Structures are given as structure tokens and as C-alpha cells.
From TrEMBL:
Residues 200-250 form the FlgD/Vpr Ig-like domain. It comes from the Bacteria. This is Blue (type 1) copper domain-containing protein. Pfam families: Copper-bind, FlgD_ig. It comes from Eiseniibacteriota bacterium.
Length: 269
């Protein structure tokens, strides 16, 4: 006989666990009472056991490429360093990367709002001691709300990424007035030179580096003190040893007194 009591029992337990896991993210635990680390950990690991994490970019390139970061803590996504603001907003240009970095607890970064039926369709990633830094790329302009699965509804643990067009000066992107690339690299793909234009909002240290797709530094295009204003630079598609970079995708990473921005460079065959 195939249908033994043990099998039936196992099926009941699995069904109950499934219902609990679903419930845990809809009806929150004791409302407003902080969850224990163990409860958070269970919520997060159960969820990703059944719903594969997706939407991030490879950690190697990620850390260097992220232009802004949310610190993930109990129970907020903090990007402005102020605990008084519950829901923080980060603004990036199209094509740039945002990092979520764990500070305490077990959380997720999940696209959408807690009540959305398609929540997590763009990205859905654990942020916990097991994956302390996760990075998502934002190629398309738009407004991207996100939340933490265990804490989005009960603790209002949410945030927003606003992505503006990569070509500043057109449509007045919020970062156009600040420091950073003021237009995408050109020509793209590049055969001899990749050209850059960037803006320095106040005189200070500037560095422009080229990273390969795995986040390794390939070339240092410029470094030094620059005056406020618009500047141009070019990369001759050669690495630090003077060899031509192999065809593929690279990232130009600009730091202007600590403000980071990035733009993609494709080296043609
Ligand atoms: Cu959380």
C-alpha cells in the first residue's frame, strides 16, 4: 500500500508549513512588536527555499559599481543616515547600480509594494548575513518602490529607487546638476576611444577608472583635482600595461569627492 500514514502526515505538515510561510508575509507577526532574529531568519529562508532569489548582479562587479547604498537594518532601509525618515529614496541615472547592505537582522529587498500581486517580479533578494551585499542594476528610467517581505507591511519597511534618463541635460534629471557623468560614454560600442563627459559640482578630487565585467580594475583614466564645471576625458581602450582591452562590456567608474557614478562601455572587436 503506497498511501501510508507517514506519507499523509508528511503531506499535512508540508501543507501547514506552506500556509504558515504564506501567512507570515501577509498577516504579520504580533503587529509592531519587533521580530526576533530567529523568526526573521526563518521567514527569509523559508521564502527563498520555495521562491528562487533573482534580479541581482554578480557580487564581484557589484560592490565597485553601486553608486548608492541602502543600509538594511531593523526595521528600515536607510540611505540618508537619518533614523527619522522611514522611507528613503535614492536617485540614480539609467544604467547605474544600487546596493543593499546588511546592518542588522534578516531582511529582503523585493520590488513593488507589499500589497502588489506581482511583488518581486523585478527583483527579490535576501539581505542577511548569508548575502550581506546585494546589487541591482536599473537600466530603465522609472520609479521603483521596494519593501522587505517579513517587515514591509507591519513595520512599513520600504524604500524607493528613482531612475532618471541616462542623458542629463535632457529633461533635467535630478543628478544632472550634481557631480557625475553628464551623458553616456560614446561611441558605444567603441573601437579606438571611449569618450566621457562629466560634471564637477565643486572643486575636488576626481578619479575615473575602468572596470571589467567582473569588477576588476583595468585602467585608471584620470585622477587629480578638478575645478567645478563640465570636463571631457577619453579612454584609449588599453589596460594599465598598454595592451588593448579584449572585446566586451566594461564600466567607467567616476568618483567626484566621494560621489560615485558609472556608465557602460562596450569595446568592439
Ligand atoms: Cu525586514
Amino acid at each position: 500500500m503506497l498511501r501510508t500514514p507517514q506519507l499523509v502526515l508528511a503531506a499535512v505538515v508540508v501543507a501547514a508549513l506552506g500556509a504558515w510561510a504564506a501567512l507570515a508575509f501577509v498577516a504579520e507577526p504580533i503587529g509592531g512588536v519587533p521580530m526576533s532574529d530567529a523568526a526573521m531568519k526563518l521567514c527569509v529562508s523559508d521564502w527563498y527555499a520555495e521562491h528562487p532569489a533573482h534580479g541581482g548582479v554578480s557580487p564581484a562587479a557589484a560592490t565597485a559599481l553601486a553608486v548608492d547604498t541602502f543600509l538594511v537594518t531593523n526595521f528600515r532601509f536607510d540611505s540618508d543616515g537619518r533614523s527619522a525618515t522611514q522611507i528613503d529614496t535614492v536617485r540614480v541615472n539609467a544604467g547605474e547600480f544600487v546596493m543593499w547592505k546588511i546592518a542588522s537582522g534578516f531582511h529582503t529587498t523585493t520590488s513593488g509594494k507589499p500589497t502588489d500581486l506581482d511583488a518581486g517580479s523585478l527583483w527579490d533578494l535576501p539581505v542577511d548575513p548569508g548575502s550581506p551585499e546585494v546589487v541591482v542594476d536599473f537600466p530603465t528610467p522609472g520609479t521603483y518602490p521596494f519593501f522587505c517581505r517579513p517587515h514591509g507591511a507591519a513595520f512599513n519597511m520600504r524604500g524607493v529607487v528613482v531612475v532618471t534618463g541616462g542623458t542629463a541635460g535632457v529633461g533635467g534629471s535630478p543628478r544632472a546638476a550634481g557631480a557625475g557623468f553628464s551623458r553616456p560614454a560614446w561611441p558605444n560600442p567603441s573601437r579606438q576611444n571611449a569618450n566621457f563627459r562629466f560634471r564637477v559640482d565643486r572643486s575636488g578630487e576626481v578619479s575615473l577608472r575602468i572596470l571589467d565585467a567582473s569588477g576588476r580594475a583595468v585602467a585608471h583614466v584620470l585622477g587629480g583635482t578638478f575645478a567645478a564645471g563640465e570636463h571631457d576625458a577619453a579612454w584609449n581602450l588599453r589596460d594599465a600595461g598598454g595592451r588593448r582591452a579584449s572585446p566586451g562590456t566594461y564600466w567607467a567608474l567616476l568618483d567626484v569627492h566621494g560621489v560615485r557614478s558609472s556608465t557602460k562601455v562596450v569595446v568592439a572587436r
